[in-house]
Amino acid sequence: MYRAVTRQIEVTVEPNFVPEQSSADRSRYFWSYTIVITNSGEETVQLKTRHWIITDATGRQQEVKGEGVVGEQPTLAPGERFEYTSGVPLSTASGFMTGRYQMVSESGERFEIDVPTFSLDSPDNKRVLN
């Protein structure tokens, strides 16, 4: 599990390779990832936007920006958490993702929180060491 905390908001990520949606012959590899956002602060916050940078094993990057996550802009009161699962395809057997969420506080302040960088590894990823 990967973890980041920004302004008392914790984001954890658990990636999982999905072999039944992947095919090495077609250079298609798919991962699901489950994210839990926990508000340990003292103020209610709302997730407004997401910004992802997805990098494959060749260094090719894809940038994804959008409103909310999985069609929602969750509001988290102190002590509340929000969990969702999404997915990402790559044309290589490994890669990584990193990102940020834009949040807005109850008082109207906008700020960003980090999503921890997490690794996408498949069983087909052959590493050669000397």
- Unreliable segments of 5+ consecutive residues: none
Number of domains: 1
Cα end-to-end separation: 29 Å
> Could you name the CATH topology?
Immunoglobulin-like
CATH top level assignment = Mainly Beta
Helical content, roughly? under 10%
Structural class: mainly beta
Per DSSP E runs of 2 or more residues, the count of β-strands stands at: 9
* Count of alpha and pi helical runs: 0
Radius of gyration: 16 Å
Strand content: over 45%
**What is the level-2 CATH architecture name?**
Sandwich
Largest sheet: 5 strands, antiparallel
SSE sequence, one letter per element: EEEEEEEEE
> What characteristic shape results from the CA principal axes?
elongated
| Whole-number mean pLDDT | 94
Which superfamily, in CATH terms, is the homologous superfamily?
ApaG domain
Counting copies of identical and different chains, the oligomeric state is single chain
